Amino acid sequence: IRCWSNIPFITMPLSRAHGKSFAHRSELKHAKRIVVKLGSAVVTRGDECGLALGRLASIVEQVSMLQNQGREMMIVTSGAVAFGKQRLRHEILLSQSVRQALHSGQNQLKDMAIPVLEARACAAAGQSGLMALYEAMFTQYSICAAQILVTNLDFHDEQKRRNLNGTLHELLRMNIVPIINTNDAVVPPPEPNSDLQGVNVISVKDNDSLAARLAVEMKTDLLIVLSDVEGLFDSPPGSDDAKLIDIFYPGDQQSVTFGTKSRVGMGGMEGKEGIFFFFFFFLGGALWALQGGTSVVIANGTHPKISGHVITDIVEGKKVGTFFSEVKPAGPTVEQQGEMARTGGRTLAALQPEQRAEIIYRLADLLTDQREEILLANKKDLEDAENKGRLALPLLKRLSLSTSKLNSLAIGLRQIAASSQDSVGRVIRRTRIAKALDLEQVTVPIGVLLVIFESRPDCLPQVSALAIASGNGLLLKGGKAAHRNKILHQLTQEALSIHGVKDAVQLVNTREEVEDLCRLDKLIDLIIPRGSSQLVRNIQKAAKGIPVMGHSEGICHVYVDTDASVEKVTRIIRDSKCEYPAACNALETLLIHRDLLRTPLFDQIIDMLRVEQVKIHAGPKFASYLTFSPSEVKSLRTEYGDLECCIEVVDSVHEAVEHIHKYGSSHTDVIITENEKTAEFFLQHVDSACVFWNASTRFSDGYRFGLGAEVGISTSRIHARGPVGIEGLLTTKWLLRGDNHVVSDFSEHGSMKYLHESLPLPQRNTN
Fold first, then answer.
1. What is the mean pLDDT of residues 407-417?
2. CA 85 to each of CA 4, 48, 207, 261: distance values in angstroms, whole numbers, following the listed order
């Protein structure tokens, strides 16, 4: 016997011979045998009489889905007491109404009193109806269900235990879902302290302890406990500082606070003894099952927004409720990292501009000083990727890092440091509201940024430098370059340490799914995805209440006008397509004016693309002009990310603009022409983040724009658009300085008048 919080607790199950529980949520998808425990509050209605039929139907649907996937599902259910209570109340009301109608008249029906109903009688009356309901619901999914009623004696008697075990295994073998419940019609009153006198055993006193005991006996992979609480909290649920415990580890009991028992059913008691009883069988049972090799998740099965998929979400490894794990990570949780980033970011924002710049200069120096260590880590990542064959050649190229790239990266960081001197706290508007009442609008950091990136080697230091310059806390979730990301993050924290703000930039190394990170709306203020269009779309879909800055696709166009210069056309097209074909600002669709077909200029374009080994796809109109055409494009809205492009024909600059608006992604679009009027029409009418005249699409970049670097290119229409540098990571707040001013002074009969005078801005530091 081990003692936690002065409460003896049994550490070993009676008999358990299978392996350890799952260490991480992501492993739950491998669970084969699953027990779902349904608390009374989940199964019953809010009025405590009758069943929550819609909720129950949703649970049956989820269990059926998992059963049909080949899993072995078992349900430990409450609800018999509530169902029986409804039936008995109905019978009593009907009986009383008949008697009173015969003896007292109809006018006294409203004064009828319903006697207190004994719980065991309610259970006896409700068991058959509850099972009939389960059978009817499972039949809709061609699944058979079977009822098993048990008591504590069934587990203490060895022969009965073997019989029960054999029955359950046979039902599972026949693809039948066992519906198990304590036989509340005969169960004795709960005795909260009786288990303290036994060793290696947990008694069956309610459905919580039954579910834990059953999970251990049946060597279950996963126990899902659904109730009317979100999970375990570190302080009373509902209090201002209450936080849901995402992962609970044995030994953490001191951090858990419980409230009162569930509103319905037979389990638990009020008062001090009731809290202990709830502790022992709710938390204690879960820990007992965990030590027996069964993973446990406690979650809310009543919330209308999640109850329809709570079970399947848990099995898929999503962050729902509290997950019990015996493997405690060495570092902080992602929630703790989020808090550290926010606290560190606020301290960072309070530094002097020169101090933030000094941190970035130090990081730039470290990138060049430690280049050998960085390149060695990058080499390991490339070897890992090649050995596993998990990346295509264009992505492998994006993953590579060289001395020249590190030098360019350091130069860009120094540009950021130089341009960040007056970014935070800059006054952008001053207004005199009234005499001695002045209003200022100043720039401030957004808060905590979550940047999710895939393979680009320059992303981590660039984004870190921009976050430091703008005073934002930063969470980084890297992709397939663990060795390189680790060393770059260490160097970033070393630079931050010179002014004591090491925690402002955090690298998430835990096995957090991206979708789970996108749900941390209380910790994260802005999500910035850096990667493939699929990654961006997935994040935009998964983000719950957190704005996402980015672009889902980089479908960039180059339009060659009839007045285009022969010397400029091939240079610009080659650079746009071939300089870095995997980049989001690379050319994907080449629009050719119809009059240029079968001209020497057109032939030069085609010859150049062939020499560069660019695969050409013909658009519908282009294909119609050719007897033997290249393969016709499947979609005009395609981002190739490789040495491929589409060629399409248009009749005018107007048609080129219409094509871009219909098939483009509002990223970067280019016109090549010597006609200034045509160029200006294109520049003014193309509604994209970046529109160029006689310049490569590859100029769409924060470094090339003189921003030092970028956190990404945004195609959204609010806040920031195009390459996003320091300015895009800032928002504003209003500062009002007064002297005993109140609004009533400005009323019709007040003593003061509004002035609303614009005041000059303080001179900016341009050094």
1. 93
2. 38, 8, 18, 19
Q: Which of 530, 485, 529 is nearest to 505 (CA)?
A: 485
**What is the Cα–Cα distance from 241 to 246, expressed in whole angstroms?**
15
What does the pLDDT read at residue 193?
41
Residue 164 has pLDDT above 80, yes or no: yes
CB atoms within 10 A of CB 147: 16
**Is the pLDDT assigned to residue 197 strictly greater than 70?**
no
Please tell me the predicted confidence (pLDDT) of residue 259: 46
3-state secondary structure of 162: helix
Question: How large is the angle between the packed helices 459-470 and 353-369, nearest 10 degrees?
Answer: 160
Percent of residues in the chain assigned helix, strand, coil, to nearest 5: 45, 20, 40
| Backbone CA torsion sign across 437, 442, 444, 446 | positive
Q: Is the pLDDT of residue 39 over 80?
A: yes
Write b or e for each residue in 26-57: b if 16 or more Cβ atoms lie within 10 A of its Cβ, otherwise e.
Answer: ebbeebebbbbbbbbbbbbbeeebbbbeebbb
Which positions ≥6 away from 663 have C-beta within 8 Å?
A: 555, 589, 636, 637
- Token digits for 39? 């608390």
Partners of 35 in beta bridges: 74, 223
Looking at this protein, which amino acid is placed at residue 199? V
**Residue 412's closest CA among 696, 690, 711?**
711
- 418 CB-near residues (< 8 Å, 6+ apart): 357, 708
Q: At what angle do helices 403-419 and 371-388 cross, to 10 degrees?
A: 120
Domains and CATH numbers, the chain: 25-91+118-188+200-324 (3.40.1160.10), 334-542 (3.40.605.10), 557-710 (3.40.309.10)
d(CA 732, CA 444): 5
CA atoms of 715 and 746, how far apart (whole Å): 44
* Residue tagged 């809709």 (tokens): 140
- Name the token pair of 276: 């202990």
Compute how many other C-beta atoms are within 10 angstroms of the C-beta atom of residue 477: 22
pLDDT band, residue 273 (cuts 50/70/90): very low
Phi, psi of 51 (to 5 degrees): -100, 150
Q: Determine the length of the chain.
A: 767
Using CA atoms, how far apart are residues 142 and 145, in angstroms rounded to an integer?
Answer: 10
Q: How confident is the model at residue 37 (pLDDT cuts 50, 70, 90)?
A: very high
Q: Is 507 left (phi over 0), alpha (psi -120 to 50) or beta?
A: beta
Question: Which one-letter DSSP state was computed for residue 564?
Answer: -
Sheet with 437-445: strands ordered across:
730-737, 437-445, 427-434, 757-758
In which residue are the tokens 């389990």 written?
A: 267
Q: What average pLDDT does the chain have? A: 84
Q: What is the rounded CA–CA span in Å between residue 600 and residue 680?
A: 26
Mean per-residue pLDDT for 72-86? 84
CA distance 764 to 567: 43
Contact 83, 130 (CB under 8 A): yes
**Do the Cβ atoms of 506 and 308 come closer than 8 Å?**
no
**pTM: predicted TM-score of the whole model, two decimal places:** 0.77
Strands 176-182 and 72-77: parallel
- Decide if 191 contacts 166 (C-beta within 8 A): no
C-alpha span between 227 and 208 (Å, rounded): 10
Strand duo 427-434 + 757-758: pairing: antiparallel
Q: Which of 299, 304, 320, 278 is nearest to 227 (CA)?
A: 299
Q: What is the largest CA-CA distance in the chain?
A: 110
pLDDT classification of 254: cutoffs 50, 70, 90: low
